[in-house]
Amino acid sequence: MRIAPLGERALIVAYEGGIDPVTHRKVLELARSLEEQPFPGFQEAVPSYASVAVYYDPVAAGKADQSEKPGRTARGVQAKVAEWLTERVHSGAATGSGPRAGCTFEIPVCYCSECGPDLPYVAERNRLTPEEVVRIHTSRPYTVYMIGFMPGFPYLGGMSGRISAPRLPTPRPRVPAGSVGIAGTQTGIYPFASPGGWRLIGRSTLPLFRPDQAPPSLLAAGDAVRFLPAAHPDGSEGL
Fold first, then answer.
1. Are the CB atoms for 172 and 195 separated by under 8 Å?
2. Where do the Carboxyltransferase domain residues begin and end (predicted)?
3. Taking all residues of the chain, what is their mean pLDDT, rounded to a whole number?
4. In angstroms, rounded to a whole number, what is the distance separating the alpha carbons of residues 3 and 14?
5. Which residues does residue 209 pair with via DSSP β-bridges, in sequence order?
6. How much is the pLDDT for 119?
7. Among residues 72, 146, 184, 213, which is most buried (max CB within 10 A)?
8. Which letter does DSSP use for residue 212 in this model?
């Protein structure tokens, strides 16, 4: 485990490991622990694949640090927060009540040629038919490892290497909202229309980001996603 600065108001707690369930459980446990038992000045814990970004108010944290003298520096406060985080992890308190129980979401996806323009490429690259790619893509649940890139964008792990594909050499200037893409052995969903370089294999009409609701993101780290083949948004048949 390593703790490093992220500016003057945050620290990164990084665990050894890559994209795997064991490491990610540690990440979620620490994030949950900090939310349930925050240290002085704690503001937010943002989980990723193998790390947690911990944001804090340096003024509030500094006031709570009795070991610091008046005129304490931002670096001194940061060192104290790092000490608190180290104690939390090593004392076993990071486990707390464990990560929150994730929800499972079934997301309908149209895998037709219009919604999935890169589906033929993914199939040909892996010596499969488009139908086989869809069957593999919809055959298992995926873990939401993190939300990033844009509000509500889920980075999903657990995809079969049999349908892996590299990003586009040049990103598209506009990817339609709801597009389901593949990048390496990850899959994800674009909540909004935006530029993007993932290989597009389908599209969903399910809103992933709802600014009028709390929380606005439908998915959160620790949730599970299952994709279901669906008809085209206009009602015509999918793949």
1. yes
2. 1-219
3. 90
4. 6
5. 217
6. 98
7. 146
8. T
